TrEMBL record:
Pfam families to which the protein is assigned, alphabetical: Ada_Zn_binding, HTH_18, Methyltransf_1N
Keyword set, alphabetical order: Activator, Methyltransferase, Transcription, Transcription regulation, Transferase
Record flagged with keyword Transferase: yes
Full protein name: XRE family transcriptional regulator
Database matches in SUPFAM superfamilies: Ada DNA repair protein, N-terminal domain (N-Ada 10), Homeodomain-like, Methylated DNA-protein cysteine methyltransferase domain
Amino acid sequence: MYHSFPDNGTLYSALLNKDSSFEGLFVVGVKTTGIFCRPTCTARKPKRENVEFFGSAHEALLQGYRPCKVCSPLEQRGAAPEWLRPLLGEIDHDPFLRLKDSDLEKRGLEPGRVRSWFKKHHGMTFQAYLRVLRIGQAFGRVRYGEGVTQTAFESGYESLSGFVDSFKKTTGFPPSKSPHNRLGATTRILTPLGPMLAAGTDDGICLLEIIDRRMLETELERLSKLVNTRFLPGFCRHFEELNRQVEEYFSGKRESFTVPLVLPGAPIQQKVWTALQAIPY
């Protein structure tokens, strides 16, 4: 629960405007229907006298309200739909997975629907996402001593030239230069405020930002230059711990973070960040 709750006029205005910055701050109960909704619900807006506001979905449920079927307030915004979760589980289990549209259809999935979801939430098609994951895994193998040719064929490529070309387009350097370069990873973390983008390296977490934020792509490019690291969707050893600590924070069980951080910047920026971390919960 937040310490300061805006007045009802502000909350109603946010509801009318579908203001996404209020996601996670409140839900609204509609007295005439017995339904409660997110601030961003696209359903027809009720009159002011017919609503009441709650700090959480749990409070609305305790008052007898039912979750809206349009905006699904019990689900975290940005969460993968149920029909897609088995496929995501397969990818997590095997990052080298190669799937064609026909393979998706055999799993009961419509390729265009899968493609649209990945385009919206990851900024790339499903096939491009799989390719980036394979290249990320291949980078690690080559960097730590495995041969380029062996890695290429074990990554599912039918030719060495095709692997080298794809690798270079994705990372900006050929596989043979892997021992002298670095790749970082990005992932989506779901929060009550909406999905957030996390970026990390072997040294720690260097970005956690709301995905809807403007100029996020520019911010990631600037970060890449500062840490001399190209970031790709993938896996980082700090993501699991970050996700756990973020969940604990939003549930009120954690007041500070201990996950390792990478904070590149000028001395004055370092001082500011140190001061910000000292602000109490």
